[in-house]
Amino acid sequence: VFVCADSSLGHPWRGFGGSFTEASAVIFNRLSDAKQKEVIRSYFDVTSGLGYNLGRVHIGSCDFSMGMWTCGNIDDGDMLLDGFSIARYHQEIIPMIRQAAKVVGAPLTMLASPWTPPPWMKTKQDFKNGGRLRPDCRKAWAE
Q1: What is the DSSP secondary-structure string of 11-44?
Q2: How far is 127 from 117, CA to CA, in rounded Å?
Q3: What is this structure's pTM?
Q4: How far from the centroid of its chain's Cα atoms is residue 93's Cα?
């Protein structure tokens, strides 16, 4: 049970939840249908589980992905992001999110957060090993 003694915080409590990562979705999708339902109920069912109502998904790859990737085939210099696609999410992640949404019984609030800009937008042009967002890419990254 979470108790907040200070009512002057001024921030509404939105709920409680966890991440839908590619690695967790790959493992989840290898489970039997019965085990998948058990896992989803244990987290998202308000009566018999934890009652999660929030979910986070990574934009592009993260530290719990099956490799390093971006959303689609975005070419170097594609400031309009014409190659943007969420096709990879349909393979593993979205099926798990859909199962959770059915169990929640209310809207499942989702937050999408990036780990890093695509390498071509960074000063070091690498997924890892540092680098910063190039100033000329700020507008495209914000889109």
Answers
A1: ------EEEE-HHHHHHHHHS-HHHHHHHHHHHH
A2: 8
A3: 0.84
A4: 9
Please provide residue 43's backbone torsions phi and psi, each rounded to the nearest 5 degrees. -95, -40
The residues with which 14 forms a beta bridge, in sequence order, are none
Domain boundaries, the chain: 17-142
Cα–Cα distance between 45 and 39 in angstroms, integer? 10
Residue with tokens 């390093």: 68
Structure tokens at 54: 């929030």
Query: 114 is written with which tokens?
Result: 């990036």
pLDDT, tens digit, for every residue of 44-99? Answer: 999 999 999 999 999 999 888 999 998 887 778 889 888 899 999 999 999 999 99
Chain CA centroid to CA 23, Å: 11
Distance CA 60, CA 47 (A): 34
Terminus-to-terminus CA distance in the chain, angstroms? 38
- State which amino acid sits at residue 69: W
Fold of 17-142: TIM Barrel (3.20.20)
Any bridge partners for residue 84, and if so which? 72
